[in-house]
């Protein structure tokens, strides 16, 4: 019997996300009439063991703020569609910039797999990355890949299946924002936990977003006043 | 709900409190902390080589995005791209058109006569002519894909953005503009990354001025026929005129239509990367397939319509001045008198080009049918065009109205009919003024 799985691909622009998408689904799986940019939501399917996996290719973004439409699209998809697994494509040669998105995904409570792409280039520059430690710090599986040569795709699929099997909810990454900020987060968190919105989003995440003066989230709270 | 109001009040107090402590927005503190976390993780996880060499990417960038060399290099790369496209595609085009000539010659003999004429004059003359341009279009898309995949296009956008920012325009507009060289539709969609609504709207409005792949057949046909020695240069000049006018129009819109402060931006320069063959081919195909699909649908449909209008009323000389199409053309043609191409054949070609710009060439192909020596020669001899008129016509084709699919995209992205209507209007006026200026000034200078 086939089991259905919904996964989403996210990552910075130029992290090789589209290549991973192609490796997973084959090149003919584009939806959307006008490719060339990954603004449209592209979807494809692939089979792995007895899984039928639906893959959504989200727009390439550096962050998950509400400053651009792409970021809102990516964020809303993960929060509202709740994919079974979110695969975050990370450029191993640009870890510092790429991980900024990763930790925001983790803070949202996404069930995340980090696909560490372009391992060859990072290696070529003399970087050595300790995958086990990285996985430990992020609390997520890390899969090394060279998507341009289709390396690591099977391992990624294996991790996706494994994560789908385990019913454990992710604990969500907790970054310590410092005593003062944490105090305010706690106050907000307590209140938010009693509001209707906390049924849709993690309360701590909402609190952080409010402090970041995120327009979309603030609007959601304001709209809640109407009814 | 009471809680939500309370939450927002607590939030406001928290923000004020944090600002008083840190002297900065909470947003900045939070971002700093996240980067702090990341750098902590990286210290543990990543071992870098003892001496961090200046990556070769940075070394190349010192030249490529150099303040003085950046723009000349960009222009040289574009020029090289067109030379590459032409040199490689010329023999392929000759083969394809020889093939169609061969089939057309057989087809005209088919009975009944009208069927022979439909296939020989209409379909092969029209669709066949458009398909002749498959090699240059696909080669151009290969060149664009190589430049994009290697990371050069991001540099070109960076260089042009710097220029635009200096003259008071929003940066980040140029990536959508460069995408417009392929097709304006994804380019207009790509403007979604521009945060400021005003800046985004301006970028959308000027995008159709960027010369897309569908306009290439017109340039190749006319540049090849009228400027054989300078084909690459003439086509290059079309793209350049598009860019310059786009910048000028952006300045005008920004000053009078949508005034306001300019947004700031940081542009990422991805590291250079050797493009893979598969990647380049996939990107070429993604763009190019639309051209083939259009050839089989819109263009074929228009060509059959053109053939029908050329053959009616029954018994008239095919595509003669008294045919229906001749009548339609003569109705519109006077508008183009001042531009130099007031012939009815040119007028109807532009008319049908409203649907998709490839049909300009397709319509001409169907009207003139396939002639010895090719379509370019037929245009020169039957319309009496000079190189000046051909150039004026190319500029008009570059500038006048976006194709219907682009109009629909502008409507979808701006969520109103006002902006697509405005784009059509200003482009028509701009095209007419530019073509007239070129023709009239050229004549005064004695260029024909």
Percent helix among the residues of chain B?
A: over 70%
Mean pLDDT, all residues of chain A: 85
Low-pLDDT stretches of chain A are: 33-38
- Which architecture of the largest domain in chain A per CATH? 3-Layer(aba) Sandwich
- Give the spatial strand order of the biggest sheet of chain A: 2-3-1-4-5-7
End-to-end CA span of chain B: 77 Å
What percentage of residues of chain A falls in helices of 4 or more residues?
Answer: 40-55%
Question: In the CATH hierarchy, what is the class of the largest domain in chain A?
Answer: Alpha Beta
How does the overall form of chain B come out from the CA principal axes?
elongated
Count, helices of chain B: 20
Oligomer type: heterodimer
Major sheet of chain A: size, sense and barrel closure?
6 strands, mixed
Radius of gyration of chain A, in Å, reads 18 Å
N- and C-termini, Cα separation of chain A = 45 Å
Order of helices and strands of chain B: HHEHHHHHHHHHHHHHHHHHH
Major sheet of chain B: none
Beta percentage of chain B is: under 5%
- What is the average per-residue confidence, as pLDDT of chain B, rounded to a whole number? 82
Q: Total strand count of chain B, please? A: 1
What does this 3D model show about the protein?
The complex is a heterodimer of chains A (227) and B (448). Chain A has 227 residues and is of the alpha/beta class. Chain A has two domains: 3-165, 3-Layer(aba) Sandwich (Rossmann fold); 179-224, no CATH class. In chain A, 42% of the residues lie in helices and 18% in strands. Chain A contains nine helices and seven strands. Chain A has helices at 17-25, 69-81, 95-107, 119-124, 131-138, 153-165, 179-193, 203-211, 215-224, and strands at residues 3-11, 42-48, 51-57, 85-91, 112-117, 128-129, 142-144. In chain A, strands 2-3-1-4-5-7 form a six-stranded mixed beta sheet, sandwiched between helices. The longest helix of chain A has 15 residues, at 179-193. By secondary structure, chain B is mainly alpha-helical. Chain B has two domains: 8-47, no CATH class; 70-444, no CATH class. Chain B is 73% helix and 0% strand. Chain B has helices at 2-22, 26-45, 56-64, 70-108, 113-131, 134-150, 152-166, 174-179, 184-190, 197-206, 216-226, 231-257, 277-311, 324-332, 344-352, 358-368, 375-383, 387-399, 404-414, 418-444, and one strand spanning 46-47. In chain B, helix 19 packs across helix 20. The longest helix of chain B has 39 residues, at 70-108. The chains are: A alpha/beta (227), B mainly alpha (448).
């Amino acid at each position: 019997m086939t089991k259905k799985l919904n996964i989403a691909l996210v990552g910075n622009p130029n992290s090789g996300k589209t290549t991973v998408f192609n490796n997973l689904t084959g090149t003919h799986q584009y939806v959307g009439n006008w490719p060339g940019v990954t603004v449209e939501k592209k979807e494809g399917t692939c089979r792995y063991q007895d899984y039928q996996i639906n893959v959504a290719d989200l727009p390439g973004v550096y962050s998950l703020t509400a400053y651009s439409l792409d970021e809102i699209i990516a964020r809303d998809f993960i929060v509202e569609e709740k994919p079974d697994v979110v695969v975050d494509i990370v450029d191993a040669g640009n870890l510092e910039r790429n991980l900024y998105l990763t930790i925001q995904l983790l803070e949202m409570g996404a069930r995340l797999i980090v696909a560490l792409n372009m391992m060859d280039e990072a290696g070529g520059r003399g970087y050595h990355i300790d995958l086990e430690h990285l996985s430990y710090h992020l609390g997520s599986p890390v899969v090394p890949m060279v998507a341009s040569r289709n390396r690591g795709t099977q391992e990624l699929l294996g991790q996706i299946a494994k994560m789908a099997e385990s019913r454990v909810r992710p604990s969500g990454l907790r970054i310590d924002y410092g005593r003062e900020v944490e105090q305010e987060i706690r106050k907000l968190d307590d209140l938010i936990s009693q509001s209707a919105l906390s049924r849709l989003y993690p309360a701590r995440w909402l609190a952080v977003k409010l402090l970041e003066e995120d327009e979309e989230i603030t609007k959601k709270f304001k709209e809640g006043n109407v009814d | 709900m009471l809680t939500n109001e309370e939450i927002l009040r607590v939030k406001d107090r928290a923000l004020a409190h944090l600002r008083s402590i840190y002297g900065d927005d909470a947003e900045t503190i939070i971002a700093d902390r996240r980067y702090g976390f990341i750098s902590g993780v990286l210290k543990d996880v990543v071992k870098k080589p003892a001496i961090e060499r200046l990556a070769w990417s940075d070394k190349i960038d010192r030249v490529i995005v150099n303040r003085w060399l950046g723009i000349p290099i960009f222009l040289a790369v574009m020029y090289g791209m067109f030379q590459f496209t032409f040199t490689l595609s010329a023999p392929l085009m000759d083969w394809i058109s020889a093939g169609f000539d061969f089939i057309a010659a057989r087809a005209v003999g088919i009975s009944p006569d009208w069927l022979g004429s439909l296939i020989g004059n209409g379909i092969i003359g029209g669709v066949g002519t458009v398909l002749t341009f498959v090699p240059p279009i696909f080669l151009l898309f290969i060149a664009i894909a190589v430049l994009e995949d290697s990371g050069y296009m991001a540099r070109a956008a960076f260089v042009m953005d710097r220029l635009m920012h200096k003259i008071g325009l929003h940066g980040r507009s140029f990536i959508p503009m460069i995408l417009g060289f392929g097709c304006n539709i994804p380019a207009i969609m790509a403007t979604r990354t521009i945060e400021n609504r005003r800046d985004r709207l301006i970028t959308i409005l000027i995008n159709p001025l960027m010369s897309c792949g569908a306009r290439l057949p017109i340039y190749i046909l006319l540049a090849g026929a009228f400027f054989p020695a300078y084909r690459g240069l003439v086509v290059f000049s079309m793209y350049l005129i598009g860019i310059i006018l786009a910048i000028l129009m952006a300045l005008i819109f920004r000053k009078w239509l949508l005034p306001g402060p300019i947004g700031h931006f940081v542009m990422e320069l991805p590291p250079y990367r050797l493009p893979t063959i598969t990647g380049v081919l996939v990107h070429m195909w993604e763009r190019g397939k639309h051209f083939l699909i259009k050839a089989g649908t819109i263009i074929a449909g228009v060509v059959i319509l053109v053939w029908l209008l050329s053959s009616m009323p029954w018994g008239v000389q095919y595509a003669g001045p008294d045919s229906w199409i001749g009548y339609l053309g003569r109705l519109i043609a006077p508008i183009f008198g001042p531009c130099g191409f007031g012939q009815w054949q040119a007028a109807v070609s532009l008319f049908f080009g409203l649907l998709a710009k490839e049909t300009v060439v397709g319509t001409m192909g169907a009207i003139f049918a396939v002639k010895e020596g090719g379509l370019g020669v037929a245009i020169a001899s039957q319309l009496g065009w000079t190189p000046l008129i051909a150039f004026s016509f190319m500029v008009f084709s570059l500038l006048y109205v976006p194709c219907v699919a682009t109009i629909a995209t502008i409507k979808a992205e701006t969520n109103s009919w006002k902006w697509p209507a405005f784009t059509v209007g200003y482009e028509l006026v701009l095209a007419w003024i530019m073509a007239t200026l070129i023709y009239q000034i050229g004549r005064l200078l004695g260029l024909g």
